[in-house]
Write a structure and sequence with these properties.
Blueprint lengths: L1 H29 L11 E3 L1 H5 L6 E8 L2 E10 L3 E8 L10 E11 L4 E10 L8 E5 L6 E3 L7
Parallel strand pairs: 1-4, 5-7
Antiparallel strand pairs: 2-3, 3-6, 4-5, 7-8
Length: about 150
């Protein structure tokens, strides 16, 4: 009887290991665009673009794997804080096209701890070829390189 228990526990461990490998492999395939599963939305809305949100500090911004990433800090720690990358829908006629964008922060949090976060915004659906982001509050343009398919 103990022999069968040992086999079934070995089978369970082996099956768990195989399922774990499958999940990790598939997660890596789907996350090649953005490695962070907690990416924030990109919203195309001229009215929201013109609005002002809560105050936050933008420390560093970069493009990584077709994601805009930003190190930010804000006052909070015990409530809801929501970030979004907002595009007003316009695109400047240049080569490559330049797209004005803005990070909007909605802070429903009255706590005063200083929170540091790295935000992630997926850019793969914004435009089909290379473009430049002009991020409000950030002095440098950000180039988003797209791998164009050659036929």
């Amino acid at each position: 009887m103990n022999f069968y228990k040992n086999i079934s526990s070995f089978s369970f461990i082996f099956l768990t290991f195989i399922v774990g490998i499958i999940i990790i492999t598939n997660a890596c395939k789907t996350s090649r665009i953005c490695n962070n599963s907690a990416c924030h939305p990109v919203i195309k809305d001229p009215l929201l673009y013109d609005s002002t949100g809560s105050t936050f500090e933008l420390h560093r911004v970069w493009i990584e794997q077709q994601c805009l990433k930003a190190d930010v800090s804000y006052s909070g720690g015990c409530g809801t804080a929501t970030f979004a990358l907002v595009w007003n829908g316009s695109m400047m006629k240049s080569l490559p096209p330049q797209i004005p964008m803005k990070i909007i922060f909605d802070d429903q949090d009255n706590c005063r701890s200083i929170i540091h976060k790295t935000l992630c915004f997926p850019l793969h659906d914004i435009y089909e070829s290379t473009f430049v982001i002009l991020l409000h509050g950030y002095e440098h343009p950000l180039s988003v390189e797209k791998n164009e398919k050659k036929q």
